[in-house]
Structures are given as structure tokens and as C-alpha cells.
């Protein structure tokens, strides 16, 4: 079974889900899938993907899993009670061959945000593993050798640099994910600070990591008081929910310029740091540090988290650039969990509508934005003062 547990997902899906339960339990959303890797025929694997989704929809949270969640100080008792009865429903998932591009999937998930939010990560992991199983050249022994080599490189070159596993959604397989995490801990020791995957965090006694994802801020484009204030409304709602916990703000939903305009002295003091997920990481960090300094905030008291397509060499370069200037953290995804031979797929499943209206991510990296309404994207750019494409 590719997904053995509803905890086999990223922590931020559960933390966002708790906030949705408390603040917007009636919100309706639509997610849309995209494979950014060209020339991939996923339609031939459609039956296998459906079979795994059916298994996913049979899962329930176990008593042991609920007790683990309850042990996390930011998870509240009423949310644990809600999860005790929770089950994903197949009726919210729609998959068919694309009528536009041969081999592509037209995959959407729609329904109540509270009932659909947990689909994203396991569905992507299912598609990734289904594809990988059919590819020649996969060799976990060679993958382990490469893994150890890159970890030893990090350990020897920067013993003060820490990393986290962020690789659930595009992993080679569940079994490989289970195998590599103890290796990371063995080779790196305290330099390996945990995983975004709650299932493995529970099994291996690791710290689960995560705060918010793009969809939290995107949803507020239709849930907030007005579009221009949506980003501030999302950060304020998050702060009210977690009261100082989970204090890393995501910066690239409407671009860095708009983020820095909204992230004023109040939010800069309130949050522990910011996460980079698109654009040049060195330029991003320099601008964030300058922004903090302009508000007379010592950057050395804040954490900059980098998570955009990292490999070990990128981690070392970024770490060296910011050493002594601020605290840094690194979330490594595909390069950690899917480097065993075949080319990994670039898969995303993004929210594109909330309350029946369009929402969008406008990325600092060309090609990473996603929306199904170009007119809304143009309006969003105008409202936030972004250049038109």
C-alpha cells in the first residue's frame, strides 16, 4: 500500500486543517492537478492510481495516531475529536484523460475545504510512486550510496548546517522514504532535525516540521475582507489560531514585493521567520534581511527557511551566504526522497478556486504560478501592484 496512514502527509496540511475547522468550516474549494514534466503519459496508469485512491479513502486515524497528534502542543482537543471521525471521500476526486494534451490527466478535487484538504499530498505521492514503479533503472542500493555521499558532503563541509525532509509528495516510494530517514539521522546526527511527514515523525521519534502552505493565503483572496488585504488577513488569522506557535510565514503567494509591503513591523515581530519557495534565494534573503533591519529588528533573531528545489550544493551555497547574519533552515524535497535513477516528476495539486471564485499564486519563479482564470491573475497583479506578464 502506497499510503499506509492518513498521517502519511505533511504537517502543514493538518495545521491548516485545524485552522479551517475553527475559522472557515463551510468554505468550498477546488484543487487542480498539473504535471510540469513534459511528455509524461499518466493516463496509462489511471487504473492503478484509482486503486490506490480507493485504498486511501478506506483509511481512518488510529487511536495511537490521535494520541500522537494530541501530544503536539499546538494541536487542540476538539480537532483531535474531529479527526477521530474523519475519512476522505472518493466522490470529491475526479480524474479523466485530458482532452487537450494526450497522456495528461484532468484531475480535480472539489468540495468542502475541511473534507478535501488532506487529499493533496497522498494523491501526489500515489501518482509519483505509480509512475516510478513503471520506470526502468530504479536502484535503491545505488540510491542509498548517492544519499550517503551527499549527506557526508553536508556533514563535512558545514557541520553547523541543519536540514529537514520535505519530500513526501514527490518521493520514489513509501518504502524508500521509510528507509532513507534513519540513514539521514545516522549520518547527520543533530544536523538532521526532522521531517514534514507526520507518519514517519511518529514512527521514528522525529520532530514534525511545517506551518502553512500557499493554499492558506490563496483562500483568503476570497475569504478575506478585500483582495488587497487578503495576505494580511491570512497572517492575522494564522497568528490568532496558533498564538506564537508555527511562526514561519510563506512569502511567495503574490511575490516578494507585495509580501514585504504587507509584512510590516507588527508581523515582523510576531512571526519567527519567513519561508522562501521561489525566485533567487540569495536575493530573497538579502531583501528580507534588509526589510527587517529597516524596521530595527535584528535578523539574527529570525529564521529564514529555504525549500525551493534544493540539493546539497544549493544548501551549502545559501548557508555560507547567510552564515552569521540570521538563522537558516533548509527543507529538501525531491533531491532527498527521489534520487534512485529515473527522472522524478514535477507534480503539483493547487487550489484554484475558493467559494466558487478564482484564487491564484503569482510566483517569483516563472512557471510556478497556477490559476485557471487569466483575468483574475491580471486583476490580482493590478491590485498588488505587480508587473503584468
Automatic annotation (TrEMBL):
Q: Which residues form the Nicotinate phosphoribosyltransferase N-terminal domain?
A: 7-128
This enzyme's EC code(s) = 6.3.4.21
- Please indicate if the UniProt record lists Endoplasmic reticulum as a keyword: no
Which InterPro entries would you find in this protein's record? N/Namide_PRibTrfase (IPR041525), NAPRTase_N (IPR040727), Nic_PRibTrfase (IPR006406), Nic_PRibTrfase-Fam (IPR007229), Nicotinate_pribotase-like_C (IPR036068)
Q: Which SUPFAM superfamilies match?
A: Nicotinate/Quinolinate PRTase C-terminal domain-like (SSF51690), Nicotinate/Quinolinate PRTase N-terminal domain-like (SSF54675)
- Specify whether Membrane is a keyword of the entry: no
Record-annotated Nicotinate/nicotinamide phosphoribosyltransferase domain positions: 162-387
What is a GO molecular function of this protein? glycosyltransferase activity
Catalytic reaction equation(s):
5-phospho-alpha-D-ribose 1-diphosphate + nicotinate + ATP + H2O = nicotinate beta-D-ribonucleotide + ADP + phosphate + diphosphate
Q: Which Gene3D superfamilies match?
A: nicotinate phosphoribosyltransferase (3.20.140.10)
Modification type Phosphohistidine: residues: 214
Q: Which Pfam families match?
A: NAPRTase (PF04095), NAPRTase_N (PF17767)
Q: Enzyme group, top EC level?
A: ligase
**Which pathway?**
Cofactor biosynthesis; NAD(+) biosynthesis; nicotinate D-ribonucleotide from nicotinate: step 1/1
On modification after translation, the UniProt record reads: Transiently phosphorylated on a His residue during the reaction cycle. Phosphorylation strongly increases the affinity for substrates and increases the rate of nicotinate D-ribonucleotide production. Dephosphorylation regenerates the low-affinity form of the enzyme, leading to product release.
Q: Which UniProt keywords apply?
A: Glycosyltransferase, Ligase, Phosphoprotein, Pyridine nucleotide biosynthesis, Transferase
| Family, per entry | Belongs to the NAPRTase family.
In terms of PANTHER family, this protein maps to: NICOTINATE PHOSPHORIBOSYLTRANSFERASE (PTHR11098:SF1)
The protein's job, in short, is: Catalyzes the synthesis of beta-nicotinate D-ribonucleotide from nicotinate and 5-phospho-D-ribose 1-phosphate at the expense of ATP.
What is the name listed in the Swiss-Prot or TrEMBL entry for this protein? Nicotinate phosphoribosyltransferase
The primary gene name is pncB
